[in-house]
Amino acid sequence: MVWTLMSSLVPIALLIALGTALRRRAFVEAGFWPQAERIGYYVLLPSLFLHSLATAKLAGLPVLEMASALVVSTVAVAALLVLARRSMAVDDAAFTSIFQGGVRFNNYVGVSIATGLFGVTGVALAAVANAAIVPTVNVLCVLVFARYGRGNRFSVRALVRGLALNPLIVACAIGIVLQWTGWGLPAGIEPMFKALGQASLPLGLLCVGAALDFSQARQWVQPIALASFAKFALMPVAALIACRAFGLHGAAAMATLMFQALPTASSSYIMSRQLGGDAPLMAGIIASQTLLAGAALPLMVLGLAHWL
């Protein structure tokens, strides 16, 4: 298991490093990366989720138990962070960045590791994980921004609209319907979605590397430490407790534990910038957690695995 996990992380680390090198050497124009992120977020990654959910062989997989463990552990850590807000010596905008750093996860890294660890089954497990966590995390983050973001006021209409237009949630919903009804994807369309989904992983990881910026990370040692403690310690422990509570074991339990120990998503910066958060701090958390994940993820997953 150690070798399998590490061998799955190596190509991910290399692609992220390549993205960083390409950006620093200006191999492509700077405007390429935001557009690549956009096509990845709105086209490629949704295609991956839709295809994997619609075509996944879910027979024999503990879908309900896995989804329940993921949702419960995510909500539990989110609640702990909100309860601990008053003890944090940061302003409200900075808290939104700490919150996102504690609960959001990098889809590209998660799908890549799950596929490397479990093959075709890993794709199905990753699809279940994303279908459970993506809506949960987005609802929680929008609520936190409504309460703590600069100049934001809570609006049920804005919340519903944001969720309804989220491409990842929409793709997961369509994929679930196609899976549940047994319709699947038409023969002429399925290869297209499969090809688009396969393209999402390498391009997404290159964009993660291009977005890394450690120049300001030293200014926010405490907030970065708080967010990383929530992400790499609290979240995996909560996932372990939830797995045991729901009787989850085997590959599904390992995938649950792994997804809850992933670094935060690079898209957190965009949400922070748009919803009144502390965007520079969010960039520092993203960069730091992506670097820390190389050591923290194997330690947490393998350290807690025997309790499963």
TrEMBL record:
UniProt membrane topology term: Multi-pass membrane protein
Highest rank taxon of the organism: Bacteria
UniProt key word Membrane: yes
A Pfam entry, by short name: Mem_trans
Subcellular location(s) per record: Cell membrane
Ranges annotated as spanning the membrane: 39-56, 63-84, 113-146, 158-180, 224-247, 253-271, 283-307
GO cellular component terms listed in the entry, alphabetical order: plasma membrane
Record bears the keyword Nucleus: no
GO biological process: transmembrane transport
Residues in coiled coil: none
Keywords: Cell membrane, Membrane, Transmembrane, Transmembrane helix, Transport
Family affiliation: Belongs to the auxin efflux carrier (TC 2.A.69) family.
Identification of the protein by name: Membrane transport protein
Species whose genome carries this gene: Duganella phyllosphaerae
